[in-house]
Amino acid sequence: AQKVTQAQTEISVVEKEDVTLDCVYETRDTTYYLFWYKQPPSGELVFLIRRNSFDEQNEISGRYSWNFQKSTSSFNFTITASQVVDSAVYFCALTEGRDDKIIFGKGTRLHILP
Amino acid sequence: DSGVTQTPKHLITATGQRVTLRCSPRSGDLSVYWYQQSLDQGLQFLIQYYNGEERAKGNILERFSAQQFPDLHSELNLSSLELGDSALYFCASTDGGPGELFFGEGSRLTVL
After folding, report:
1. What was the pLDDT predicted at A30?
2. Residue A110's beta-bridge partner residues?
3. B58 contacts chain A (CB < 8 A)
4. What count of other Cβ atoms lies within 10 Å of the Cβ of residue A44?
């Protein structure tokens, strides 16, 4: 069965520090998709990135970067030079190719302290 | 604004009651997902519909049911409510396939 583990329940860092959020997944499929979503204090869930299982290239978008490693079944998310506005709960998610069920991890609550 | 509309935003009811949560997906999106978010369980996938038909099912209780109508809006029915059903219920839509989910603002249900 699919499983997504975000071992870090809560992280606090001081503004401008870099922080990495870990995500480890389990799936029996060779075709799958991985996602990261952000849930700020206002409550809405915002899509950040999608990666398919055949694309192991790392991605950078501004201060955000993602490291996908199939060998360790990990899809980690790094925020560089963190800002207070980055404070949110971040969810990693997984869907397998055969259906559209998207399973979320339990989330990591990130506090960026001024 | 994601384009996904959920009503009501807040709902307070008593144990044993029944409620209906409504979701209007983004214009053109055929697929609707329902999730339950509680403090201890994170975001739990409940059920997904695609163009009126059930596509995938998660850990949805038998007391809960959902449907998607011809106009593509969806309703989640929760019956015989228990205290533990208190949670934030999210609807999300996508145009189909494992793509970006667009989430509504959620319906916060409180069962007293």
Report:
1. 87
2. A11, A88
3. yes
4. 17
For position A99, what pLDDT does the model report? 65
Q: What angle is formed at CA A20 by the lines to CA A86 and CA B37, rounded to 5 degrees? A: 60
Largest CA distance in chain B: 38
> Hey, CA dihedral for B45, B50, B54, B55, is it positive or negative?
negative
In this prediction, the residues of chain A whose per-residue pLDDT falls under 70 are: 1, 97-99
Judging contacts by C-beta atoms under 8 Å, the chain A residues touching residue B100 are 35, 47, 50
Rounded to whole angstroms, the Cα distance separating B103 from B95 reads: 13
Identify which of B45, B88, B106 has the shortest CB distance to residue A103. Answer: B45
Residue B40 has pLDDT above 80, yes or no: no
* Nearest Cα to Cα of residue A4 among A33, A40, A31: A33
Q: Cβ of A45 and B56 within 8 Å?
A: no
Q: Confidence band (pLDDT; 50, 70, 90) for B89?
A: very high
